[in-house]
Amino acid sequence: MGVAMKIMVGFDGTDIARGVLKLAEDHAKAFNAQIFVVTAVTQSHDVKLDDMDRMEESDRQLNEIKNHFEKADIPCEVRVLVNDLQPGESLVQFANENAIDEIVIGVKKRSKVGKLLFGSTAQYVILEAKCPVVAAK
Asked: pTM of the predicted model, to two decimals?
C-alpha cells in the first residue's frame, strides 16, 4: 500500500518542536503518511560564523529525526529552506508546492496580550495554509 498522505512538521529545534514530532509520528502511523520535517531560515546577506554553526546543528538534528522515523518505518524527508521569506511564508509555500495534506506545528504559551499580538510563524501558518494545521504546545 502506497503513501496516502503527506504530513509536514515545522521544526525549529525547540523543545516544543521536538514534542510535536511525536504527534506527527502518531498521525503518520494512523494515516500511512510520509513526513516532511522542514526548517525555515531567513537568508542573511552577511553570514556569520555562529550562523554556520547553527546550520550544522540543524542538519545534525534533522538527520537524527530522519533516522528515527525511518527506524519506525515511516518515510521521511528533511529540508532546510533558506530564502528571503519569513519562516511562516517559507513553510506555507513549501506545503503548497509539495501538496502537503496536514501541517503539524508547535506554538508557545503566551499571555493574553501575547495572543493578541501573536505575530508568530505558527500564526502565519495557521491563517495562510491551504491544508489543515494541527497546532500543539
From this structure: 0.86
The gap from C-alpha 130 to its chain's centroid, in whole angstroms, comes to: 15
| Measured CA distances, 133 to 9, 23, 54, 119, 121 (Å) | 10, 12, 27, 17, 12
H helix runs in the chain, sequence order: 15-31, 49-71, 87-97, 112-116, 121-128
Structural domains of the chain, with CATH: 5-136 (3.40.50.620)
Give dist(CA 131, CA 10) in Å, integer. 14
Place of cell 491551504: 130
Q: From first to last of its 137 residues, what are the pLDDT tens digits of the chain?
A: 455 799 999 998 888 888 899 999 999 999 999 999 999 888 765 555 566 677 788 888 999 999 999 999 999 999 999 888 999 999 999 999 999 999 999 887 665 555 554 558 888 999 999 999 998 88
